[in-house]
Amino acid sequence: MRQAPILIGCAHGTASEEGQAAVRELLAAVRGAMPDVVVREAYVDVHGPFLDDVIGQVPVRAEGLSAVVVPLLLASGYHVYHDISTAVDSRPDVVSTQALGPDPRLVGIVLDRLREARVPPDATLVLAAAGSSDPRSRADTEAAAETLRSAWGGPVRVGFAAGHSPSVADAVAQAREFGEGGAVAVASFLLAPGVFQKRLGEVGADHVTGPLAPHPDLAGVVMTRYRELTLGHD
Fold first, then answer.
1. Domains of the chain: which residue ranges?
2. What residues does 186 pair with on adjacent strands?
3. What average pLDDT does this structure show over 102-106?
4. 59-100: pLDDT as tens digits
5. Strands 124-129 and 67-71, how do they pair?
6. What is the topology classification, in CATH, of domain 104-208?
């Protein structure tokens, strides 16, 4: 029986030890659910193991895929279309999937976090994403916001922690200025704890939710991305 391609979960990278632990916990959950698949971790920035090095350690197979890179990113952008794409271009036996989002399961996790934070149902939400200079990343975030609007039933704005306007702080201020609801809540659309998540607590919102990881549904999204691509290469 042919061995399944290696799954490389590639995150951005963070100096936060708590954030690093959250990524590793996610990959551990994937390993537990897919015991026949080798799962490795990689990063595109801040710290290693860096994706180029991890791909370089993947043995070349005579036929079929050797590895599948799953970006542990909630939206596509520069890291997906440049960093990860460039890393896999040198290996025809290594391919990359799309980012984790858009996916309704991610919005489901956001709703779980809102319930955990006891955000009132009449609150205006600011979906807080990392941000990117790539318009495709913003489009993915806007798609997530639209899904959240349908599920929340109230006002939902988008704010970015970096790289795009409006900033999360500006989006919170605009929500208060236009009086779209009683409380204003920042709904984190960040994967793991880190500097961006910390900034969300400094924007003056009435409520701030935690990042998406750890959450059991995240492993399901990672596995879906992997299976979608490997099935297409059978």
1. 6-101+215-232, 104-208
2. 126, 208
3. 97
4. 998 889 999 999 999 999 889 999 999 999 989 999 999 999
5. unpaired
6. Rossmann fold (3.40.50)
Q: Mind listing the pLDDT tens digit for each residue in 172-189?
A: 999 998 865 589 999 999
CA atoms within 13 A on the CB side of 24: 9
Residue with tokens 């899904």: 147
User: Residue 144: is its pLDDT beyond 80?
Assistant: yes
Calpha distance 150→129 (Å, rounded): 18
20's tokens: 């690093």
Measured CA to CA, the distance from residue 66 to residue 61 in angstroms comes to 6
Do 13 and 43 form a contact (C-beta atoms < 8 A)? yes
Q: How many other β-carbons are positioned within 10 Å of the β-carbon of residue 152?
A: 22
Which CATH architecture fits 6-101+215-232?
A: 3-Layer(aba) Sandwich (3.40)
Q: Do domains 6-101+215-232 and 104-208 have the same CATH topology?
A: yes
